[in-house]
DNA sequence: AAATAATCGAGACGGTACGTCTCGTCTTTAC
DNA sequence: GTAAAGACGAGACGTACCGTCTCGATTATTT
């Protein structure tokens, strides 16, 4: 790796670190690219060169934090693995800095299609796919009714979580997650 | 009605109308209170006197449009009523100006607790309560298992809809609504 | 005096009193008619009904304070009377609230011809005339050269005082006044 | 001159030119920094970056016009030089744009100590000093009484001029200036 | 005593400007 | 030759006053 790209990498890191720092202090919605550049000791151009919008920087900062925290466990027990995984996601969404950052990012995505696309492609969809893959495994093993739409199942698992997170702002407790899971498997189970 | 409150009421209406108008043209996120006031032919203070933030004005404009569109039908067939009602909500969320306006409002709520509270109190919660009341009626009639948590049922109905609306941005078709409903009643039915 | 005009008079007094009060606290330039009305517990209209501008109110408040402080003494010794009188004017200009108020009024007069005219007619000119009348008496008594222009003499007495007050902002000491007077009489005395 | 300061210098010039332009059209008191920026095709920040207040901009615009118009002539005849110089100042104060601009500036100085200081330091005091220097020369040559205070003489020359300009608003004719000068030299001459 | 008229406080209203902030682009300077 | 530093035009922020206006509630005068 050349020293230039090393240097470039340093700035990238520094800017994302400052974004998270300032975000916790100021709130992710209130903060400006101008302020991030100032605090990071970096020219505004250096930020604009790397990210096209505040949302894009927000997304990268989020992923830099937790890109690998969302790998599913694999114990052989599909239902237990799902439960464990959703507990982890719920915990993540609850705690700073991920929670508020993700909240801000979803807000940003509502009026910035680029952010919406990137967020979906890099965060939401991979999660969905892994969940659906697990459900698929379970169905193959006969733990699930073969005619139940797995995308729908995934939506029924995720939807209530996001609903609480974005709309009612109630806490994402493990109990709640378990309730949803149990309800789903009750309806989804083989007859 | 006195002429003062008449006058006051006129401005209030005019400002909300302009907000909806400008929103459709410009996009709700892009628009400024300044622009709304200018277009409505009204001093900025006259807006700030009525609403504390852009979000508050957004919410009132939304409610002025559809405050009464969300009353449940009552045909005696609870499941059919629920279905009809959710279809109406899905249609509303799909079409402008309600759809984009509501999307912008949810985004605003993510960083403005006042908006979040007001949105929940004036829009989301009433919907929830009416849905839960219907489910309650159905349970009383023996159409639902007596030990199923009705708040959870409501969340399983609403969550996937909001998930599609806010996260995956797929269309809120009647088919999708029906799928969710069927899945829920399958798991929820009396054994 | 009728009770209506009594009432009216009360407000007039109250407003001018508040103007002086607020002026001392806030500075005469910073203060708004709005603030005066608010503090005086009076509708804005009640102020605008009486005065056409802030300058007009300023002038009336000034005159209400010191309308009668500027009557010349008359001891028979013209030069001593002049000296005593100018000392009094200098003292007045030095001390609040008259000094700052008068300063603000002169400033206001620079861009408001109505204020300029009123200030000149009601304050400056009467002073001038009394000074010239005294000088006239002195000339009649042979204390002054008969061919010296008395308006010019008055300007030479007043000018340096205003120059210090408005331009250099040095203190208007009795010593300075005496110097000017002595210089004037030296040049003006009969040969 | 580097191209940065070139660019900066261009804006500075353009803003001051616009200030003078707008001032003549609108009146210096009526005009806003906002209007100057708009007319000059410049962001408001670009004005605020250079001047802290309207008064400061006013002063710089004034000085940009006539910084070098006030150098004394030097013919060897001190009294004639003084007369010529004061005639020039009187003419300057009479004619737009200097006259109204200077008037507005003096008004501004009455409630803005920074403007007062700057105006005195950059305009009034240099004039004073040059006048006093001339008077000093005259005294050295025996044209003036050695015991006459020269600062006082300067005040007696300037005061009546400012008095007419600011208070009575009578025209600053050469005749008037000559009268003042003659009166001063009559009193000041060697005995 | 009732009717009429004037005055008042309160403050809404359309405007305009304030001085600050951020946007995204563009220049210059320094390492 | 790449950044930092930050100037720049643009324009929104939320606040303050302007001077005009409308409103009911007192007062005062007239009938």
UniProtKB/TrEMBL annotation, chains A, B, C, D:
Please give the Gene3D superfamilies that the UniProt record associates with this protein: Homeodomain-like (1.10.10.60), Tetracycline Repressor, domain 2 (1.10.357.10)
Q: Which residues bind DNA?
A: 32-51
| GO MF assignments | DNA-binding transcription factor activity; transcription cis-regulatory region binding
Tell me yes or no: is DNA-binding among this UniProt entry's keywords: yes
The highest taxon in the source lineage is Bacteria
Record's keyword terms, sorted: DNA-binding, Transcription, Transcription regulation
Residue ranges annotated for the HTH tetR-type domain, each copy included: 9-69
Family matches, as InterPro entries = Homeodomain-like_sf (IPR009057), HTH-type_TetR-like_transc_reg (IPR050109), HTH_TetR (IPR001647), Tet_transcr_reg_TetR-rel_C_sf (IPR036271), TetR_C (IPR011075)
Keyword flag Zinc-finger: no
What is the protein's given name? TetR family transcriptional regulator
What is the scientific name of the source organism? Stackebrandtia albiflava
């Amino acid at each position: 790796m050349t020293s230039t790209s090393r240097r470039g990498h340093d700035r990238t890191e520094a800017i994302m670190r400052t974004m998270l720092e300032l975000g916790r202090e100021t709130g992710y919605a209130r903060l400006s690219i101008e302020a991030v550049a100032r605090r990071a000791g970096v020219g505004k151009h250096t930020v604009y060169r790397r990210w096209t919008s505040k949302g894009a920087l927000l997304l990268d900062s989020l992923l830099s934090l937790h890109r690998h925290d969302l790998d599913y466990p694999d114990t052989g027990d599909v239902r237990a693995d799902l439960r464990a995984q959703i507990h982890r996601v719920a915990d993540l969404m609850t705690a700073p800095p991920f929670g508020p950052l993700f909240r801000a990012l979803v807000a940003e995505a509502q009026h910035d299609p680029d952010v919406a696309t990137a967020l979906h492609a890099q965060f939401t969809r991979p999660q969905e796919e892994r969940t659906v893959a697990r459900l698929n495994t379970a169905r193959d093993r006969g733990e699930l009714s073969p005619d139940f739409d797995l995308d729908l199942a995934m939506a029924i698992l995720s939807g209530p979580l996001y609903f609480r997170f974005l709309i009612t702002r109630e806490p994402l407790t493990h109990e709640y997650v378990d309730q949803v899971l149990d309800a789903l498997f009750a309806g989804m189970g083989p007859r």
